[in-house]
Design goal:
This protein is of the alpha+beta class. It is built from 13 helices and 48 strands. InterPro entries: Beta-gal/glucu_dom_sf (IPR036156), DUF4982 (IPR032311), Galactose-bd-like_sf (IPR008979), GH (IPR017853), GH2_Domain-Containing (IPR051913), Glyco_hydro2_dom5 (IPR040605), Glyco_hydro_2 (IPR006101), Glyco_hydro_2_cat (IPR006103).
């Protein structure tokens, strides 16, 4: 009778649920939107007339599309306009969809979004970096007529951040259809707590949702793990539990571990069954790895100790704004890996899923960060960095919503990115101390020394002295430490497999107040002088350089101390915003500029972070250099601080003043600098040696230097190890422009409407030498089916429209970002100047 009863129940259950043709459908919902900058709430109604609106696809960033605007923008956010924008999309559903749960997922909308379906308000989401979704089912029509989704984006506060944010639906959108019984959004969590060379335990937790809220019998969950080559390596079936989480442990024999040099990825398929009927299926990519932070020995991955060679990244990509295709992140991560980078800090907010995927696929460690501000806002700049003059209404920002939304936004970040093997820590905040004045006041009270350059002395770390001063500067409980503990508790509710961290600017005060003790790892932002004092006072403290100048002293301070896990240099790529005055739209204080060209700083750090022998050379006239030389004192460096009105200490983030050329006035005195990881370097001018020098003799800055009177011709530097030549670099005097050369980071792109090639233009003389002094207006044209996503020259003062066919070269270079369509074939890309000189190349779309 029990068997009969079970089958009867199953038949009733099936009859209650209309047949579902497919178990889970994920529809690309990026196409066929309409957009308009308009402040009219009637646009939420299905009957609203949007015939005149612009037809677009998302991701879409209206700020970068409109271009830089001095009067409508602000220094903090990159001199772009904000406003109120509306998006609308019509779509039809059939009766076959009526039995399904239908959700829409937005990966990111900046910001203050409100979403309607067929005139029904689904909800609002203020934080512009969060991924969120809504259940549309009860408000949909299934008769073949149009449903209308409307999205309002309120970016009226155009200076609501300290960097460029973008505006609009700037990340992808998906429509997801499932059975009423389905795996919850982000409902599969995978950890690998026990790993050896013989076997790895894969722990899986699955949360199942039953939207019909009806009893389910004979339900099961089937787990299948596919190996790196797609072969089945583990499988398990468990009985389904709707009330609590479904837990299972699978064993993978002889696991192929995920690491920075071996980013091996597995796939877990999670299937829900009622009887033998498949109801839902979810696939998650994951990696098998084990890592550790140690207070004395720093960081280890899979049992191997090494230093974190990290960079900070903001979420924009120069000419593309915040609407960044995955192919661009692949390009950028490849560039970073090429100079030895092995980690990225996602500054200072949740980043795109696509970037997380690329870090998984290419083997970069990730610090995932939630917030730059908590309940107290930071200053926003209007004209220039540091003026803090943004109008109050224009600077309204997330801190006004933090207390209401922080828990959800933080937990959603962790849930969304839980299974990425690249993620090794969760950051709850960046430089929060600046927004609580009692921290800075206490620091000044307990440190008598004058901070002449801001950061060059070891502060007082005596907790008793600091706590006494701290208590005098605050009444009651410290809100910063209290909030930190709450945020960490929320993280641990979801994930106990990874440590928490924060980027601290006053770690000596943070440790005494309790803020620094709330997190598992304390990140030191620009506080290398604190390392020894902090380690001595708090020997169990795990220390990480969470934000560091891209300078030799930062890396040396890390490598000289086993207990410092690594650094994250500011920054990997140039970013928009946090700059000014006009036309300085952003800061090129990075390893690569906006266009993706490697900077001198990038070459320098490649010599630090890679073992392959390398020598690189830059030059600068003595009259412009911060370096000087005399026989008595040798080489001296006198920093030239940034002149007003810009904050003078910005110079601490900038690189040395140098040129990548050999083209000056006859006999002009030139400082020649060599960056190398070789033991020695020798300089030759037109074949004559100007001396061989040891790198160890320049231990202060790791830069070998010569003083050379300029002569036309060839300047060559040769690197030596053990007396043997290992590398060389040559600069030649530039001639007249004779050729426009073109190249691409890839010769073939996929015909999927998303793939992108980065096409570079170089101005060359008749000897093939790059003409860095030339600035030419280059016009692009294309024959074939492809899209011009934008043009750029990499310069921080380039405020020309990126959505253009014309660009002025900078240092002899420029780029165009070419995106495929769905049509296969060859695309001919041409670049020409006004003098009739042109170049061309063929890009294959397959």
């Amino acid at each position: 009778m029990r068997i009969v009863g079970f089958f009867l129940s199953l038949l009733i259950l099936i009859s209650c649920h209309k047949p579902v043709d497919s178990v889970r459908e994920i529809e690309d919902f990026n196409y066929d939107w309409k957009f308009h900058l308009i402040d009219d709430d009637s646009a939420s109604e299905p009957s609203f007339d949007d015939a005149s609106w612009k037809k677009i696809n998302v991701p879409h960033d209206w700020s970068i599309e409109a271009g830089y605007q001095k009067e409508k923008g602000a220094a903090s956010t990159g001199f772009v306009a904000g406003g109120i924008g509306w998006y609308r999309k019509a779509f039809a559903l059939s009766q076959a969809d009526e039995a399904k749960v239908i959700r829409i997922t937005f990966d990111g909308v900046y910001n203050n979004s409100s979403v309607w379906i067929n005139g029904h308000l689904l909800g609002k989401r203020p934080y512009g970096y969060s991924t969120f979704s809504y259940n549309l089912s009860e408000h949909l029509k299934f008769d073949g007529s149009n449903n209308v989704i409307a999205v309002k984006v309120d970016r009226t506060a155009y200076v609501d951040s300290r960097w460029y944010t973008g505006s609009g639906i700037y990340r992808k959108v998906q429509l997801i259809k499932t059975s009423p019984l389905h795996v919850k959004q982000w409902g599969v969590q995978i950890t690998t707590p026990k790993v050896s060379s013989n076997v790895a335990e894969v722990h899986v937790i699955t949360k199942v949702e039953n939207s019909n809220d009806e009893p389910i019998e004979n339900g099961s969950v089937k787990y299948s793990i596919l190996g790196v080559n797609g072969n089945l390596v583990a499988e398990k079936v468990i009985a389904m539990d709707l009330k609590t989480s479904n837990k299972a442990i699978l064993s993978v024999e002889t696991p192929e571990l995920w690491g920075v040099n071996t980013p091996n990825l597995y796939t877990l398929n999670t299937q829900l069954f009622i009887g033998d009927k498949l109801i839902d299926n979810v696939s998650e990519v994951f990696g098998i790895r084990i890592f550790n932070f140690d207070a004395n020995n720093g960081f280890s991955l899979n049992g191997e100790n090494f230093k974190i060679k990290g960079v900070n990244l903001h979420h924009d990509a120069g000419a593309l704004g915040a609407a960044v295709p995955k192919a661009i992140w692949e390009y950028r991560i490849d560039q970073l890996k090429s100079i030895g980078v092995n980690a990225v800090r996602m500054a200072h907010n949740p980043h795109a899923v696509e970037l997380m995927e690329v870090c998984d696929e290419k083997g970069l460690l990730v610090m995932a960060e939630a917030f730059d501000e908590w309940s107290n806002p930071k200053g926003k700049s209007l004209i220039y960095l540091g003026d803090n003059a943004a109008p109050k209404e224009s600077a309204k920002a997330y801190p006004e919503m933090f207390n209401e939304w922080a828990e959800r936004d933080l937990k959603d970040l962790i849930l969304r990115d839980f299974n990425h093997p690249s993620v090794i820590m969760w950051s709850i905040g960046n430089e929060i101390e600046w927004t609580f004045p009692h921290y800075s006041k206490t620091f000044n009270d307990v440190n008598i020394e004058s901070r002449a350059d801001g950061y060059n002395f070891a502060p007082n770390y005596d907790p008793k002295i600091i706590k006494e001063a701290f208590d005098k500067n605050i009444e009651g409980i410290d809100p910063l430490a209290t909030t930190a503990k709450q945020l960490v508790d929320w993280v641990k509710e979801i994930d106990t497999s990874r440590p928490t961290v924060c980027g601290s600017v006053l770690p000596s005060i943070a440790m005494a107040s309790g803020y620094g003790k709330a997190v598992d790892i304390l990140g030191f932002n620009y506080r290398l002088a604190d390392y020894d004092a902090a380690h001595k006072q708090y020997p169990d403290l795990k220390i990480l350089g969470s934000e560091n100048w891209g300078a030799y002293k930062e890396w040396k301070a890390c490598t000289d101390r086993d207990f410092v896990a690594g650094i994250f240099a500011w920054t990997g790529f140039a970013y928009l915003g946090e700059a000014g005055p006009w036309p300085r739209k952003g800061l090129e204080i990075s390893f690569f500029d906006y266009a993706g060209f490697k900077t001198p700083r990038g070459h320098f750090f490649e010599c630090l972070w890679k073992e392959d022998p390398k020598v690189y050379m830059v030059t600068i006239p003595v009259s412009e250099s911060e370096f000087s030389f005399n026989e008595d004192d040798g080489w001296k460096f006198d920093i030239q601080l940034t002149p007003p009105p810009v904050w003078k200490n910005l110079r601490l983030w900038e690189w040395y003043k140098v040129n990548s050329k050999w083209h000056y006035t006859e006999d002009e005195s030139i400082v020649v600098q060599a960056y190398t990881n070789c033991e020695e370097a020798e300089l030759f001018l037109n074949g004559t040696s100007l001396g061989r020098q040891k790198r160890s003799d320049f231990e202060d800055d790791n830069i070998i230097k010569w003083l050379v009177p300029y002569k036309d011709g060839e300047l060559k530097v040769i690197g030596y190890n053990n007396g043997e030549q290992t590398d060389e670099y040559i600069l030649n005097t530039q001639g007249e422009l004779s050729k426009i050369a073109m190249s691409s980071n890839k010769q073939t792109v996929k015909a999927n409407d998303y793939d992108v090639a980065v096409v570079t233009v170089e101005l060359l003389d008749n000897n093939g030498e790059l003409i860095t002094d030339a600035e030419e207006d280059i016009t692009f044209s294309m024959e074939g089916d492809a899209k011009n996503l934008g043009v750029d020259n990499g310069w921080e003062k380039n405020v020309s429209l990126h959505k253009s066919n014309t660009v002025t070269t900078r240092l002899g270079k420029a780029v165009i970002f070419v995106q495929s369509t769905k049509k296969k074939g060859d695309v001919i890309i041409k670049a020409s100047n006004s003098k009739g000189l042109s170049g061309s190349m063929v890009l294959k779309i397959n």
